[in-house]
Amino acid sequence: MPHRTITLSQFILEQERRHPEASGEFTRVLTDLALAAKMINREVVRAGLVDILGETGTINIQGEKVQKLDRFARDVIYRVLSATGQLAVLASEEDEDIVPVPEGQPVGKYVVNFDPLDGSSNINANVNIGTIFSILPRISRDGNGDLADCLQPGTRQVCAGYVMYGSSTMLVYTTGNGVHGFTFEPSVGEFLLSHAEIHIPERGRIYSVNEGNYFKWGEGIKRYVDWLKAEDAAAGHPYSARYVGSLVADFHRNLLYGGVFLYPGDRKNPKGKLRILYEAAPLAFVAEQAGGAASNGRQRVMELIPNSLHERTPLFLGSKRDVEDCELFVQEKHPAIRVDRRAASPARTR
Question: What is the 3-state secondary structure (H, E, C) of the chain?
Fold first, then answer.
């Protein structure tokens, strides 16, 4: 029997039919996100041929140089989503404050937090980049949406996912009922179901971290990475180091093959550099729905309640058992630490 080809729109509608209470409003938000992704993808694949590579000359709220493609992606997502009539407010990594829907547009009951183009420092090197999104229900009652609508914990998300632009463009998302991946087929202009019910292995063999920051880390993370690299066939060590420097690319690989992504705090950035709303919470939702885990070392990322739009967090993300081990090292509770300390202690004399 030939394999059935299912487009993203068909898949979303099928899911909607399984929930008679669905109004179709959420479906519109998700399909419009896919439309925005197609528009961004069109510019990404021809970026070297048009005046869209390079920096704009401005600095965003994160203190980072804004890339031209970064700004383009932000504007496309805002224009497409703000015209749906389903949103109350948006928040973006590129904007200092919340972004209301345009004057005169109907105000809806959903909120979208998004990172328009993760990994933008890699744009000029033609490395995989991505869009990360999080959809939340509105909690304010009157007028346009407000700050409180955006500052909700990850447990309140109704949908989260990412689009990865590269040799092929993929959209991966969850609504709390598993994780599904769709690959863009440019000849028909559609995202087609290519990875149904993605499950991350319980334990992987890959670790992803910028080891250039090693000497700024706390002792727990140093010991964890050293432990992963040590020869120990019984424990499945050493792990392989794979680090792209683009969060979406590193997470996507580990989601499929298993492994752990690490972005710890350090002396310079004790809270890490990844944003709760635009990166950590949405990818934590995807990871958990695929059978994985996400932690800041001491707490489940999905339970973090941000106090500001651009609050950061350490992030340990990926296979469940790997994240659990990492937490134990951060908290200095892992058995390997006790063994290491005994080995390092001076011998007693009688």
Answer: CCCCCCEHHHHHHHHHHCCCCCCCHHHHHHHHHHHHHHHHHHHHHCHHHCCCCCEEEEECCCCCEEEHHHHHHHHHHHHHHHCCCCEEEEEECCCCCCEECCCCCCCCCEEEEEEEEECHHHHHHCCCEEEEEEEEECCCCCCCCCHHHHCCCHHHCCEEEEEEECCCCEEEEECCCCEEEEEEECCCCEEEEEECCCCCCCCCCEEECCHHHHHHCCHHHHHHHHHHHCCEHHHCECCEECCCCCHHHHHHHHHHHCCEEEECCCCCCCCCCEEHHHHHHHHHHHHHHCCCEEECCCCEHHHCCCCCCCCEECEEEECHHHHHHHHHHHCCCCHHHHHHHHHHCCCCCC
